[in-house]
Structure formats: C-alpha cells, structure tokens
Amino acid sequence: MSTWNPENDVDLLSGSEDEEEVAMKRDYHGREALLFVVDANLQTAGVERLMEALNIIRTAFISGILVNDKDLIGLIFANTKHSPPPLESNALDSIVMPQDCAVFLPLRQLTKPIVEHYLEFMGGVETQFAQVYGLAEPDGRGRFDYMIRLCIELLEKCGKKLNNAKIVYLTDVPNPTTSDHFQAALQKANDLEGKEFEFHVIPMVDDFDYEPFYKEFITLSRAIEMDAFQIPDAQMLREILADPTRLSAQGSNPAQGQQPGEHQAGDNGAKEGRGVAGSAARVPDQVDGRLVQLQRGRQEPAHKHGASEPGAQPAQAANDAAGLQAPLLSARSDLQQALELHVSRRSEHHRIEASVSGLVGALLGAREDSHLPVYVQAQVHAALCGTGAGGGPK
Q1: What CA–CA distance (Å, rounded) separates 69 from 66?
Q2: Which of 33, 185, 228, 273 is the most exposed place for a label (fewest CB within 10 A)?
Q3: Alpha carbon distance 364, 266 (integer Å)
Q4: Is the link from the previous residue into 138 a cis peptide, with omega within 30 of 0?
Q5: Coil, strand or helix: which one is 168?
C-alpha cells in the first residue's frame, strides 16, 4: 500500500459570506471521519468475539468504500501490551502514542489497497493477534483517558476539514478505567464535548452494564442530563455500526443519547460479515468493475443538471443520493457474494497446491531412488521435466 499524503483542502470559510452560506458550504464540502477503536480484551473471551468485532468493521469498510468513498476511516486497538506501528509508520510522526494502544490504520480515505490490507490482516488474527498486540498488564485496563487523547489527536491532525467526527469503541468491559484514573477519564468526556467529537460505545455482549462508567461518560460528552440517557439495544447498535450511513443518522440527535429505538435493523447488518473468517486478502476484479460503475453513476447528476442556483447543491446532492440508494444496496450484496466466492476459490486453490507439493516431493524422492528400475527412473524424470519418452517436449 503506497503512502498517502493528504492534500490541503481549500478554506471554504473565508470571505464575506453570511453565516447561512458558510454553514451550507461546510455541510456540502466537509468530510466525515469514523475512528474505530477495538478493545483488546475481546480476545479474552475467545477469539470468536474479537473476530465478530473485526467482521463488523470489515462490513463497514465495504459499505464505506461503496457509499462514502471521500470520508475518512481509521482503526485503533486499545488496551494492548505491544504497539506495533501501522503500515504507514511515518503517519504517526506528529502523534503522541500511549504505551497501551496501537494504531492499525490512521484516518484515511478508503481505497482498494487499504481494504485488501485489512482483509489480509483478518486472515491471521486467530493465530497472531495475541502475539503481535497482546493485552495490557496486569488486568487488561490501560489508560482510557490516554486512548481518548490519542483519538482526538488523530482526528485533529488528519489533514482534512471535518464536518462530523465519530469515535466508535467496541468493547465488552463495562468499566474501562481504575479508580485512580476515573476523574481523568471523565475529563476527556468534556474535551470531546468541547470539540464536538461524538463518542459511541458498541457493546459486544447483549447484557452490557452502562452504570459503572459509560452512562456518565456519554452524557458528559454530549452535554445532556443523565436522566435523558436511555439504555440502547446492544445487538441493534452492532447492526447499525456495520452501515456507516445509519450510524450517521443514529448520531444526528444527541438528545437521544445512544438510543437507536427509532431505527429499523439493517438488511444484513453485522450478520452478513460474521461468516467469513479468514477473509480473502484481495478484492475480486468484478468488484472493481462494480465500483467504477457506481462512481460513474454518482457523477452523472452533476453533468445532467448543469449550473444550479446558489444553495441548490445540497438539496440536489440529497436527491441524487436517494436515487442511488437501491443500486448501492444491490452493489453491497454483489460485493458480499463476490468476496465469499473468492474466499471459497482461494481455499480450493490452497488445497490443490498442498496436494501438488506432496506429489512433487514423492516424485523427487523416487527420482533419487537408485534401487528403482532404470525405465521407471526415466518416466519419473520425464514427468518432472515435462518431456516424453523420446526426450522431446510433450
């Protein structure tokens, strides 16, 4: 994956425009950022729970590259013992890294190589995650306040203007901090509120207890009363997370806390990502064609409508997006099927490779066996070298 150097956006907020026009341009041109944080404690209950979290993120990656290809997505592992650098290690040159966190993917605009890198990583998680990342000692609880500080710094130094930023924490630990650092962690909630960065906790267990910590932290981060907080449906939150567009809608009303009760569960949501362990490390070519087709479709309305009146672009964009909803959902289903077919073919290919390797080994051993008749040795040699009985090519 090549290093990506973020280009500087044009400052849209300069000049003599009134506040309404400035807000309109910010909404239309600003990008959204979605920073995933995965708690390394998920591995302690068995790798299945960790894999479920990573599969949800995988589905979100695929949805993101199809629907919001200009937005930024990143991934951090929290409460780790080791902090291996990301593939683009120079991306953290200006970032203060805590000891118990690891950045897998700095905030980046999703590309095919990035998705392939993530899929390749997923293929080795079950056997390598504990060794490469480990778990923070002694009790698996690192500094929660340091983790939030890292998230804020990554968002602020991503190199792009952000219209909306979300930190999404996947965990099964209801109290992520010790009593010594409890107040420091709550202070970070105030920092999030001041910077208008949204924080979402996604429980990876259905019976998650918000009372020890997250109820107070979330209400502080959103400047709402604790009485207004409603305990959300954990399974529905996981399904919403698999579709970033629905997560954006879910976070649009902060007065609701994290309650997604007014939203329907997604078509496939997280469930469609759970059955593909050892995901393919390459996005199939037919997916590339589907992406190009979608990109062309998304660009057509701008040419068809031509010049529009000031202020019409956001409404036009909304109408275009609504018109593309059906083909995007269809593309998402096609992509899922293509990935599953690709995984199946890779598995069959590896099985055949193993069989051929065993056969070649046996033939090599036979060729070196001087006790075999000469004519048998000649036939073995011909099979290995691709020649016929007369010495010429087959």
Answers
A1: 6
A2: 228
A3: 55
A4: yes
A5: strand
- In whole angstroms, what is the distance from residue 230 CA to residue 389 CA? 81
The pLDDT of residue 382: 59
Q: Which residues of 47-62 are buried (b: 16+ CB within 10 A; e: fewer)?
A: bebbbbbbbbbbbbbb
Positive or negative CA dihedral for 87, 89, 95, 100? positive
Decide if 58 contacts 279 (C-beta within 8 A).
yes
Residue from 89, 205, 83, 195 nearest 133 by CA: 83
Statement: residue 146 has pLDDT above 80: yes
Q: What value does the CA radius of gyration of the chain take, rounded to a whole number of Å?
A: 26
Instruction: Please give the pLDDT value at position 316.
Output: 60
Alpha-carbon distances of 254 from 115, 211, 251, rounded to whole Å: 31, 19, 6
pLDDT, tens digit, for every residue of 276-305?
A: 333 444 454 444 454 444 444 444 444 444
> Which structure tokens are listed for 42?
């998920």
- Distance, in Å, from the CA atom of 373 to the CA atom of 386, rounded to the nearest integer, reads 20
Domain ranges of the chain: 28-273
What's the whole-number average pLDDT of the chain? 74
Q: Report the phi/psi class of residue 262: left, alpha or beta, with left for phi > 0 and alpha for psi in -120 to 50.
A: alpha
Whether domain 28-273 has CATH 1.20.1740.10: the reply is: no
Q: At what angle do helices 285-305 and 312-367 cross, to 10 degrees?
A: 160
Q: For residues 180 and 2, which has the higher predicted lDDT (pLDDT)?
A: 180
CA distances from 160 to 70, 109, 164 (A): 11, 10, 11
- SS3 state of residue 387: strand
Whether the predicted pLDDT of 112 surpasses 70: yes
42, 77 in Cβ contact below 8 A?
no
pLDDT above 70 (res 268): no
